[in-house]
Q: What sequence folds into this?
């Protein structure tokens, strides 16, 4: 099984551990990931606030390159990248004139035919039947599955899970022995791109998320988004300042948890790169 792979900027830099865990898990599951040749930044949280055509052209070029390489499905681990690629494909497929204009801007044909999968969708589709036979050490911990803003919104575009109370990550965690808790902050904003410009806002928003998870008995917060991980993990000093207490709950990517349950080495999963130590793995 070979799938196209768009790592995006975060997974080649600040969230290298996410990329490491995705690749390691896919290797264990017999899934080959083939990077899209000559991929570029998708525009992330900035481009659509500055220039409409640019915000469509950047993701469209990525998708066009995947089409050119014969890819029919691509895995996009970053939730922001997943949102930008999916939204662009949706908008261009609704407007043939705009699609032709964007194709002219990027200088290559664009059909809009590639299937875009986030990591959870990929695991649901290609790994869920393999997990039971491969588990070596069940992840026997209470976990708070945090989806954030962009994995499930906008629903009319993504058609992925329930907007207010998504369940797909919870189901995956239960399959590897974890115990997902019922909590109130599954899809609340962590502060997103304010991480650099206004960390105090991130401390407040992410602090509320962390507090609810801890108050409800979670031993780990599980994410599938580089920005969410960065804000909940790296910005822990701002969170502790807002909460006026030190909170040690670790934040793990969904791929890291499944990898641990399958017996993959913690270094191979990138766990030593976390700011908040993962002491139970």
A:
């Amino acid at each position: 099984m070979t799938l196209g792979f768009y790592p995006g900027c975060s997974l080649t830099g600040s969230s290298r551990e996410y990329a490491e865990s995705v690749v390691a898990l896919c290797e264990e599951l017999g899934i080959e990931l083939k990077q899209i040749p000559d991929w570029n930044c998708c525009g992330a949280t900035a481009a659509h606030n500055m220039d409409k055509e640019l915000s469509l052209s950047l993701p469209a070029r990525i998708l066009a390159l995947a089409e050119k390489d014969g890819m029919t499905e691509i895995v996009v681990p970053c939730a922001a990248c997943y949102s930008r690629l999916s939204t662009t494909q949706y908008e261009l497929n609704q407007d043939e004139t705009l699609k032709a204009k964007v194709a002219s801007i990027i200088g290559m044909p664009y059909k809009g035919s590639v299937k875009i999968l986030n990591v959870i969708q990929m695991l649901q589709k290609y790994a869920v039947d393999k997990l039971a036979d491969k588990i070596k050490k069940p992840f026997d911990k209470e976990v708070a599955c945090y989806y954030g803003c962009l994995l499930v919104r906008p629903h009319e575009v993504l058609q992925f899970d329930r907007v207010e109370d998504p369940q797909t990550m919870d189901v995956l965690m239960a399959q590897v022995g974890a115990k997902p808790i019922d909590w109130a902050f599954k899809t609340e904003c962590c502060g997103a791109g304010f991480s650099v410009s206004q960390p105090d806002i991130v401390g407040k928003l992410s602090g509320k998320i962390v507090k609810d998870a801890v108050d409800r008995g979670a031993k780990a917060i599980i994410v599938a988004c580089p920005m969410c991980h960065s804000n909940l993990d790296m910005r822990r000093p701002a969170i502790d300042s807002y909460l006026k207490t030190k909170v040690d709950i670790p934040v793990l990517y969904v791929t890291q948890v499944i990898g641990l349950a399958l017996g993959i080495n913690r270094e191979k999963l990138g766990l030593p790169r976390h700011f908040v130590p993962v002491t139970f793995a």
